[in-house]
Amino acid sequence: MIGKKGNLKVTFVHDLFFDVDSCGRLFCPGGLDEIYFDRFFDSGFHKVKIISRSNISTKSLSNYFQPDKFEFSKFKFSDYGELFSFSAFNALRIELKKSDLVVISMPSITGCYVAMLCAIIGIPYVVEVVGDGEAFKAKRFGTLFTLFLRAFMPSVIGRASGAIYVSKYLSTRFINTKRTLVSSNVNISTVIKRKKITRKLIDKDQINLAFVGALNKNKGFDVLLNSISILVKRHKISTIILHAVGGREDFDVRSVIDKLGIRSHVKTYGFLSKDQVMDLLKDMDIYAQPSLSEGLPRATLESMSVGLPVVATSLPGFREILSDYSLIAPGNSDDLAEKLIEFIFSAELCSYHSLRNTEKAGNFLYNRLHKKRCDFYSNFKI
Asked: Which residues cross the membrane (predicted)?
């Protein structure tokens, strides 16, 4: 419990890159938006300080978080190696001591470092567990980072004063015996029930398949591209169009698309706003998320909230929200293509899973989850 009164400050620790301009304004192009932090403001805190990797912008940011509510750490770094210096230790030690609550997002290399620092100087912290660390495998030095997280995550989470998990699976894998909550980070304001689907997708002039997320191998985007090639060339489904929203590529996406000969079957959008994503999903026919690792997938739940049938991988996070029928083994383009074909050729299958997914998404409405998160953080202040 925090014993201070007045303007209360949360220090939030993450690994994502934040853009920071010369005026100190900040923005996260990686998808962490302002509404995420309402859990702190609506539970009685007044300001959020970010400790994370940064890109220093020489130009003024056109999009940025509210300056009166957010500030970035005075210690700015872009490489993890910069953390392991006396100047980093001293600068972060001073900032952490001025904080009323430290919240660490895990898995996070920066988070593990800050948790160690908190232990040394005797400052309690809370963790938000959004994954298991396997997502680092696809990154540069990914194997090393994954081994590091496997070794340290259990103790970092176990020593925390409290923990929020985005899935039940993570709460059983990384135990915290203090104050805990299972609550997804999804931001669904409403659910849309579609009319009963009576027309097979194969009979439509265009089959619209959606994907939202990083266009990288950890999200299975290479697998998805291969499956599109299989559908077009092997199964002669010439009307399918993949609508891919996101960035952060870790392979040459355009080159792979051209090599597979599916340029006319893939449309990429880059990063879109939340409203733009939801508007796009409403016009789609089916959604695919062939990830190799996930916590509780927000984009999948958002697609379910507009009544889309979904095909995803058999990871624990997906098993919590999707039927077994919708799941395939990770990393298999043939299995993904075959599962998509089953939906493409069956109106009954699409209709059943559309209704089923809409009803399931209703359990993840923002107002309901937000209240739980606010109640959780209210217990860490007076």
From this structure: 101-127, 147-166
